[in-house]
Amino acid sequence: MNAEPSFTLITGASMGIGKALAEECARRQMNLLLVALPDPELDRLASGLRKKYGVRIHVFGLDMLAADAPRRIYEWCVENNFAVDKLVNNIGIGGRSDFETSTLPELDSMLILNIKTATFLSKLFVERLKRHPRSYILNVGSAAGFFHVPHKAVYSATKAYLYSLTRALRSELKPLGVHVTLLAPGGANNKHDPVVHRKVNGWLHRNLHHSPEYIARTALDGMLKGRNLIVPGFLPKVYIRLSKAFPASVVDAVVRVIFRNR
Predict the structure, then answer these.
(1) CATH code at 35?
(2) Does residue 39 form part of some domain?
(3) What burial letters (b/e) apply to 104-125, b meaning 16+ CB within 10 Å?
(4) d(CA 78, CA 92)
(5) Does the pTM exceed 0.85?
(6) Are 57 and 34 in contact (CB under 8 A)?
(7) Rounded distance between C-alpha atoms, residue 185 and residue 229, angstroms
């Protein structure tokens, strides 16, 4: 009798880091459940990965801003008897905006996608994850979660929440065989987000940002090794370590200079 196939569930899988994670998982012969906005690109991605790697892939086109989105994903997996042993909470939104001029709908969307979705999916799936001898939750955060970033105040705060949640769940769920990891990249270089002052943008962007493919490889290597924190690249690691070595007032002043208006 064949063993029941296990699946890796990835949210926000149709572009950027999510798409690269889907490709890297398929390359490692992981069956996939891909969730993203309804779009032909999602089906094309799944079809291409099936042909290239021969893995099982199912897709669910869904607007993650819908109030019941996490439960609908969970029920989809239950109804189809998908055995999820890896949950990748990748969905999220960023962007630069002054807090004063941000709109409430914009902030609401960010809080839903960056905080609520990962929290609710982790809660819903933990019972199914612990059925496996070893299972994983990968939360995609950001190096911004270790800083207080002006003009990205809410975004960096949501990523700080995700860091705190990951650390707590790692301790709480480890006895159940569920390993929880935070991925905190400096940024993916496919984004068009001019958040750094023009005088330092070129050098800093090149060293803080990495390709989605590199981030995905590094993330999966670290997750499967059971690491608690994955920070791709040298400079983001240095920044995070230095942020802990200096007084908060000094760190905040440096971050304020880097992220000041262009």
Answers:
(1) 3.40.50.720
(2) yes
(3) eeebeebebbbbbbbbbbbebb
(4) 24
(5) yes
(6) yes
(7) 10
Q: In a 3-state reduction of DSSP, which class is residue 141? A: coil
pLDDT digits (tens, 9 = 90+) for 114-134: 999 999 999 999 999 999 999
How far apart (Å, rounded) are the C-alpha atoms in residues 75 and 86?
A: 16
Cα–Cα distance list, 79 to 3, 74, 107, 124, 131 (Å): 19, 9, 33, 14, 17
Q: Are 73 and 66 in contact (CB under 8 A)?
A: no
CA distance 192 to 60: 27
Q: Distance between CA 228 and CA 43 in Å, rounded? A: 32
Cβ–Cβ under 8 Å, residues 117 and 90: no
What range does the domain containing 150 cover? 6-102+137-258
